[in-house]
Amino acid sequence: MNLLSPWSLVWLAAAGAILALYLLKPRSRRVEVSSTWLWHGALREESARSLIQWLRRHLLLLLQLLVALLGIFALARPALTREVPVGHTRVLAMDVSAAMLARDGDPAIVAAARGGARPPVATRLDEARARALALLGQFRPGDRVVVLRIADRAQVVAQGTIPGDLDAIRSAIERLQVLPAELDFVNSLEVAGALTRSARLGEIIFFTGGVGDIDEATLAHRPAAAIQVVPVGKGDADNQAVTHLAARRSPGGDVEVFTRVTNFGPQRATGQVRVFVDGQLFQETPVELPPRQSQELLLTEFPPNVSVVEARFDRQDLLAIDNVATAAVTVAPLRKVALVGGRSDHLERALRAVPGVHLERLEPPQYDPKGGFDVYVFEGWFPAQPPPGHWVMIDPPAKGAPVGVTGTLGRETRGGREVNTAQIARVLPNPLLRGVDLAGVGIRDAKKVRLPEWAEEVVAAREAPLIFMGYPRPYRAVVFAFDLRSSNLFGRVGFPILIANVINWLTGEPMDGDALIHAGDRFAPGDALSIQPLPRATRVQIETPAQRRYRFDGNQPVRFVDTALPGAYSVTQYAGNEEIVRRVYIAGVLPIGRESSLADLKPRDAVPNLSTIGGAQPLTVVLGPGKEQSHAEWWRLLGVAALAGLLLEWWWFQR
Question: Residue 247: which of 528, 564, 529, 522 has the closest Cα?
């Protein structure tokens, strides 16, 4: 027997606590009586009781100790560990990337697997499923089979032994669906190789259309397993795609859209590029694409309130999913910022220059915690209670600040020479410093503060932090431990960028240099969508491409996971019934920050090399341990026994 979670035994202290509660009896009261003759008889009767009577008297204690011990050992996860033999393990790596929707599969193979009529059109995934099902009939009894779904990530969808689990494996293969993503061969090889390490013999069988980038490094680090590549599809390349789409709003407010259409086929292709604005057809442009060439379009004169732009290339080709691309026109949300106790116009001008910021300047007596601001900026002053929003503190006061001020940093004489203890000594990589160069920045004096538990350093002197950021729940905060006027930051080009980064990070907005800014708030389908509502938001509503609506409270971060469908996800924040922010996020198959390659449906020449060593002999033998540990856990039995003990203890107590 083995304990899979032995650290849970520290809860044995709970059993000691139960016993201690029974031992802590109240002190007896001193009472004078006329005679002790009757009391002596009672004591003799008490001492003459049997063991059964003693157990009956303390049954509640024993039951409580028993329940505690059963629960503790259930948490420790006792298990019977044994080694089981692992013979031949076959990993069926099924390519489900977007390219597998190409309509050049073999209908005859699909019909033979289904035992029905020949379909008019078959996709590469249809053929891959049919070939995998046919291969299952050739496996020997006792072989272990693992079905691995591969695209931009690898996931085990079924595993079992032939023939006992054959039906479950067949069902898993038949249920495979295409994911709107590119194929990552490197990740697929690593996961597939890990699944064969404990086997006496291991084999990896790739069912793929061969549309994936493989370099020499990938071939050099293949797992030590027999690799077989089963190509599917005819290898046609007559495909066109919208390979790039970006929309931006110019400083003057005009919307510009850039799109690129590429012909990956060997023949000239003609068609229409249709542009839709918020679901309505806006413009049509005929294009003629030479073989293996692209055409770029720059479109203007869009409506000023456009939020979603969609480009479609109207032509029948092998793959339809890449003929459509969607982009969102990013609009900075309106963020209300209060500057309390501002000491200079430089900070005020930098705050007003941040896109989407509505600034109000207040004096400390004018501060109202119910003002409804998203960000509060305090200079040399802080309220008695933290504000109801994100906050920035500059030059924290010695008393009343949420950070401990222990002294000052500045000019001091040490060892007979004058040193500046406020000089910058450490600069850590941080989103607040993106695009900001601190070389040559000098600070004359600063407050010496203790770094709070909720914070992390951004810039620091030798003895104390100078700038730090963190999460004093439920909000975010940034602290400058010095007066901005005691530094030369005001004269630096990066000062407005630093202030913009601070405001954007506090309010959960992407910052300059983030891929989201350049890709219109794009993310991959299936990835979680993280939303940081503004502090004054009371409700968040998310609408998916399938027109499903979800509502969340506005006082907490939202991690939205129903993102499998590509398209536009509209996120709207409300303060009461007033809409304060509306932003569109795009889940698309176009990769972020680079050109798409999934539309090039021609199989790569390097893919077949996965099944050979140096392009010569196939790898057929894997000498693994041939065994692995199997754990038969029985914590559930202990849990049921603990529950039964609780019921028995309750029944006895009621009696």
Answer: 522
Render 362-392 in DSSP notation, one character per residue: E-GGG--TTS--SEEEEES---SS--SSEEE
Residue 652: in which H helix or E strand, if any? helix 635-654
DSSP 8-class letter at 98: G
CA 584 to centroid of chain Cα atoms: 19
- 629 band by pLDDT with thresholds 50, 70 and 90: low
The answer to whether residues 550 and 573 touch, using CB atoms and an 8 Å cutoff, is no
Scan for tokens 């990956």, then name that residue.
264
| Alpha carbon distance, N-terminus to C-terminus of the chain | 39
Contact between residue 294 and residue 276 where contact means Cβ atoms under 8 Å apart: no
The verdict on domain 240-328 having CATH code 1.10.150.120 is no
Residues 6+ apart with CB under 8 A from 204: 90, 91, 93, 189, 192, 193, 196, 223, 225, 226, 227, 228
Structure tokens at 58: 């303390």
Ordered by start, the domain boundaries in the chain are 1-25+37-84+632-655, 87-235+607-625, 240-328, 335-506, 518-587
CATH number of 335-506: 3.40.50.880
Q: Which residue in the block uniquely carries the two structure tokens 């889940």? A: 587
Beta bridge mates, 155? 149
User: What percentage of the chain reaches a pLDDT higher than 90?
Assistant: 40
CA trace torsion 431, 433, 435, 439 (10° rounding): -160
Contact 532, 556 (CB under 8 A): no
How big is the CA angle at 34 (ends 32 and 37), to the nearest 5 degrees?
110
Q: Specify the amino acid at residue 487.
A: S
Domain 518-587 fold: Immunoglobulin-like (2.60.40)
Question: For residue 95, what is the enclosing H or E element?
Answer: strand 88-95
* DSSP per-residue letters across 492-504: STTHHHHHHHHHH
State the Cα torsion 111-116-121-125 to the nearest 10°. -50
What are 160-194's pLDDT values in tens digits? 888 888 999 999 999 999 988 888 888 888 899 88
Q: How confident is the model at residue 41 (pLDDT cuts 50, 70, 90)?
A: low
CB atoms inside a 10 Å sphere around CB 220? 8
The pLDDT tens digits of the residues spanning 252-271 come to 778 889 999 999 999 999 99
Query: What is the three-class DSSP state of 149?
Result: strand
Tell me the C-alpha distance between 587 and 546, whole Å. Answer: 13
Are 87-235+607-625 and 335-506 the same fold in CATH? yes
Contact partners, residue 405, CB within 8 Å, separation at least 6: 396, 397, 398, 399, 447, 448, 449
- Residue 240: closest CA among 293, 299, 285, 283: 293
187 vs 151: CA distance, rounded Å: 9
- Nearest in space to 491 (alpha carbons), one of 344, 590, 592: 344
Cis amide prior to 533 (ω within 30 degrees): no
- Does domain 87-235+607-625 fall into CATH 3.30.750.80? no
